[in-house]
Amino acid sequence: MDVTDPAVLAAKARTIKGATIAWGGDRYFDFEAPETCEITLEDYAYALAFGSPRWRGQTRRYTDGRRVIYSCAEHCVRGARQLLADGFGREHALAFLGHESDEVPLPDMPGPVKPLIPDYKVVARRAGEAIDRRFRITFPDPALIKRYDIRLLVTERRDLLMVPDDEIWDNGGSGQTSTKGFEPFEKRIFPHWHPDDAAREFIGMWRSLGGFEPGKTDA
Q1: What is the pLDDT of residue 199?
Q2: pLDDT value, residue 26
Q3: Which of 73, 74, 92, 107 could bridge 49 with an S-S bond, Cβ 3.0-4.6 Å?
């Protein structure tokens, strides 16, 4: 490709205008056309590991109070492992691994804030759904994934924020995000993973479960 060709330069200029961010490897993510963006499994995993810390970085090790990084990638892997340990199949584990697709191009937005920024929810949903389609992520039982997500939230709250198990959170009054009746998992979240390790664990688990990998898996 002749990068000095005016037509090439004009096309490239169009890709970096508007709601577009750099996406590594001389690529871009266009929030107005997310379905056109090339995203690899490595992009997916490392975005969740390095770019999306849970709890806005306010996590501490329950053993001694030392601050630690707890990434969205680690959250996804731990939840998927718990589903497998509880006897659920690979399709549910893959669903949990892929349930945070909107946080691949965007940071983790605290749940209570999302209703205050309705346009954010629209943009995040569109980006997440486009990525789901790219990776062929499906949700055979959304209620199951939601239940494990909240139980893991309560577990993280216990082990990383030191919030009592019986404290009830109910964002927005709808009950959809209420922690009432959700028990933490018995196993403690420890030790914690470096983001690079979390990304590698995510990639390894995705591949071991036979998840679709754009560009490498036959259609």
Answers
A1: 98
A2: 79
A3: 73
Q: Strands of the chain (E only): list them.
A: 20-22, 28-30
* Whole-angstrom Cα Rg for the chain: 19
Which portions of the chain are predicted below pLDDT 50?
173-175, 218-219
What pLDDT score does 219 carry? 44
Q: Is pTM, for the whole model, over 0.90?
A: no
State the residue for tokens 């569109």.
126
According to CATH, what is the number of the domain 42-208? 1.10.3210.10
Contacts with 191 (C-beta within 8 Å, 6 or more apart), sequence order: none
With 0-12 / 13-18 / 19 or more C-beta atoms within 10 angstroms meaning exposed / middle / buried, residue 105 is buried
The pLDDT, as a whole number, for residue 70 is 97
Task: State the virtual CA torsion across 37, 52, 198, 30 in degrees, nearest 10.
Answer: 10
Structure tokens at 25: 């490897």
Alpha carbons 143 and 216: distance in angstroms, whole number: 31
Asked, as a colleague might, if the bond just before 164 is cis with ω within 30 of 0, I would say no
Two structure tokens written together for 68: 């630690």
DSSP state at residue 194: P
Domain ranges of the chain: 1-30, 42-208
pLDDT digits (tens, 9 = 90+) for 76-86: 999 999 999 99
Calculate the alpha carbon distances from 105 to 48, 89, 190, 206 in Å: 9, 28, 28, 19
